[in-house]
Amino acid sequence: MNFQDPDELNVLAGEYVLGVMSAADRAAVEQELTRNRALTVAVGAWRDRLLEMAPAPAPIDPAASLWARIERSLPGRASTGGIWNSLAFWRFSGAAGLAASALLALRLVTAVPDTIGPQFLAVLQAPADGVNWLVEVDDRRVRLRPLSPTTVAAGKSVQFWTKPVGAAGPTSLGLVRTDQPTEIALSQLPGMSPNQLFEVTLEPQAGSPIGRPTGPILAVGRAVRL
């Protein structure tokens, strides 16, 4: 891993946040985070970018005993009036708010410029197995990265597709390997915009014979602007 190259550092930060690294690589990144400010900034930026794709959390009703347990755990709580009259609780709340404000200010100051790294990102998910592929689009190329093993039967191949919003049908971006990244010139795309569809499908060995997907979808997702 080359932490001195800005492009590779940005990719490593994205893979670290997505959780697709091996245990050894993840440990190396975490060690580097303790001394490399650029890597720390890139990891924070990737986390912010991916928040847009995260599903909204479902509300959870707290247990009836939760507040009583919190109150019992606070040192020096008031003997009457419950948690809302506890000086320790309000001191803790104020400190937590200050810490959150400081964290927000830090992220605003250290945000990675928009010109660094990919301009669009799409996380392609398999119907049942979760995240399988990552699509990164910059001003020159499209990079498709396999994130987990995909077994292809003999006589079959994997084909990469995209469909801009409003397009009549998908455009083939060619056959791809499942064990290494594939790079495609941006000029081969019919266009690029937020919410653009990307997918990989299982096709005959030579690819789809009719110019549109014929086999099952292996993974699909939509692009977001970073």
TrEMBL record:
Instruction: State the InterPro entries in the record.
Output: Anti-sigma-K/W_factor, RskA_C
Residue ranges of domain Anti-sigma K factor RskA C-terminal in the record? 97-217
Q: Which Pfam families match?
A: RskA_C
Q: What name does UniProt use for this protein?
A: Anti-sigma factor
Record the organism.
Actimicrobium antarcticum
